[in-house]
Write a structure and sequence with these properties.
It contains 8 helices and no strands. The chain is mainly alpha-helical.
Length: 201
C-alpha cells in the first residue's frame, strides 16, 4: 500500500500509512510525532503499528455517519496499537520461529477461515487460491485481492454505492496513487462493515 521506497524510515512509513487511512492531510502533529518516536524507541514492529492504526481507522469509519468518520490524529490509535503490541508479544513469546512467521501464519489462517465461511453463500470465492506467504507485504496484497473478490460478489447497485463512498472518503488526497491506496483501504473497511467480517490482520 505504501508509496514510499524500501529505504523509508519507520516515521515516514507510519506517516504515509496514517495519511492513507485518514484519507487527507500530509503530515503528523507534533504530539503524533512524539508518539511515533516512542513506538520506534520501544521497538514496536511496523506491521504491529499498521494493524493497530488500521483497526482504529476502521472503527472510526464504522462508528460515524455515512461519509464521515476519518481519524483526526494518530494518537487516537494509541490504544489499538498498544493492544496489538500486547497480542504480538503474547503470540510470539517463546517461539523458535521468527516472530513475523508466527504472526503471518495466524493471519493466513484467519483469512482462509473467512473465505471458507463466505464461500458457502458466494460460490465464486471457492476459486480463490490462498497460498501461505512469507512476507507481510505479500499477505496484505493477498488480503486486498480477497476483499476485492468479495466486493465483486455484491449486487451491482450495492457494489457501485460502496465504491463511490470509498472514493469520496479518499478524494482529498493530492496524488492519484495516494487516492487509489486510500480508496482501496476504505473499500475494504466498508465491505467488512457491510458483511460483518472480522479484521483480517
Amino acid at each position: 500500500m505504501s508509496l514510499l521506497p524500501d529505504s523509508a524510515t519507520f516515521h515516514e512509513r507510519v506517516q504515509a500509512l496514517f495519511v492513507t487511512y485518514r484519507g487527507h492531510g500530509v503530515s503528523l502533529s507534533p504530539e503524533d510525532v512524539e508518539l511515533v518516536d516512542r513506538w520506534a524507541e520501544a521497538g514496536v514492529p511496523f506491521e504491529v503499528v499498521a494493524r493497530g492504526v488500521r483497526l482504529a481507522a476502521e472503527r472510526a469509519l464504522w462508528d460515524a455517519p455515512e461519509g464521515e468518520g476519518q481519524l483526526k490524529f494518530l494518537r487516537a490509535c494509541r490504544r489499538a496499537v498498544d493492544a496489538e503490541q500486547a497480542k504480538f508479544l503474547k503470540r510470539t513469546a517463546g517461539k523458535t520461529a521468527p516472530p513475523e512467521a508466527a504472526w503471518l501464519s495466524a493471519r493466513h489462517r484467519k483469512l482462509v477461515a473467512v473465505v471458507r465461511r463466505l464461500a458457502k453463500e458466494r460460490p465464486a470465492l471457492t476459486r480463490l487460491a490462498l497460498p501461505a506467504v512469507a512476507h507481510a507485504d505479500a499477505q496484505s496484497r493477498q488480503e486486498h485481492l480477497v476483499l476485492a473478490a468479495i466486493v465483486r460478489t455484491l449486487p451491482f447497485a450495492e457494489r457501485l454505492a460502496l465504491v463511490r463512498e470509498a472514493r469520496a472518503l479518499a478524494s482529498k488526497l493530492t496524488t492519484a496513487e495516494a487516492r487509489r491506496s486510500s480508496a482501496r483501504f476504505h473499500r475494504d473497511a466498508l465491505v467488512k462493515r457491510k458483511l460483518d467480517l472480522p479484521a483480517l490482520w
